[in-house]
């Protein structure tokens, strides 16, 4: 008999994936570090030339640049734009901690399941132009001509991350429902 997948099952997997990093202190600290690192990277990618020039003058400008670019994101995109960046950084932290947990449990053979996270990480949403990490790769101009200033790309990155997390579920448990033969 075929296995049936439901929205309820997907939401349970998503809930298990999001709660996994909070099961141990080590994973919670990893979540915080990856989330903060992703937030900083996304904020700095809002204006990469400005960030590189200021930080090239010295790392003592780091907090100034971070605060100034966070304010720029808020002023250009409002709370929605800032919330998308925070949500993306948080989901990236969850995805990375889950990927490391899956790697610990499944070994190198589990790396094939991690391919779903890569498009979401690359096509994330940055603050002002929607280019995200693509701006660092030289594709900012192409992304800037997208409709809605690249907002669809930002939302697409979030959807890919949510899909990845809901598909994999808890890294230490099987995400696919099994049925006993009748």
Tell me about this structure.
α2 (25-44) packs across α4 (62-106) and α4 runs parallel beside α7. The protein starts with 6 loop residues before the first helix and ends in a 14-residue tail after the last helix. It contains seven helices and no strands. The chain is globular. It has 182 residues and is an all-alpha fold. Residues 123-131 have low confidence and may be disordered. It has one domain (16-168). 64% of the residues lie in helices and 0% in strands.
**Structural class, please?**
mainly alpha
Helical region count? 7
**How many domains in all?**
1
Mean pLDDT: 76
How widely separated are the two ends?
9 Å
The count of DSSP E runs of length 2 or more, i.e. the number of strands, is 0
Low-confidence spans:
123-131
- Please report which band the strand proportion falls in: under 5%, 5-15%, 15-25%, 25-35%, 35-45% or over 45%: under 5%
Radius of gyration, Cα only, in angstroms?
18 Å
The description of the largest β-sheet is:
none
Helical content (DSSP H or I, runs of 4+): 55-70%
Shape category: globular
Order of helical and strand elements: HHHHHHH
């Amino acid at each position: 008999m075929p296995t049936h997948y439901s929205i309820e099952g997907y939401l349970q997997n998503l809930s298990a994936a999001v709660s996994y990093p909070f099961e141990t202190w080590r994973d919670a600290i990893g979540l915080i570090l990856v989330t903060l690192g992703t937030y900083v990277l996304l904020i700095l990618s809002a204006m990469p030339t400005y960030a590189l020039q200021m930080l090239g003058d010295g790392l003592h400008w780091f907090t100034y640049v971070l605060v100034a670019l966070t304010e720029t994101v808020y002023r250009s995109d409002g709370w929605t734009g800032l919330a998308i960046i925070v949500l993306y950084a948080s989901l990236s932290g969850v995805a990375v901690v889950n990927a490391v947990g899956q790697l610990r449990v499944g070994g190198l053979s589990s790396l094939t399941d991690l391919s779903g996270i890569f498009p979401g990480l690359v096509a994330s949403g940055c603050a002002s132009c929607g280019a995200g990490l693509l701006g660092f790769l030289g594709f900012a101009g192409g992304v800037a001509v997208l409709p809605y200033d690249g907002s669809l790309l930002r939302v697409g990155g979030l959807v890919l991350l949510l899909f990845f997390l809901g598909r994999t579920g808890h890294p230490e448990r099987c995400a696919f429902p099994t049925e006993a033969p009748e």
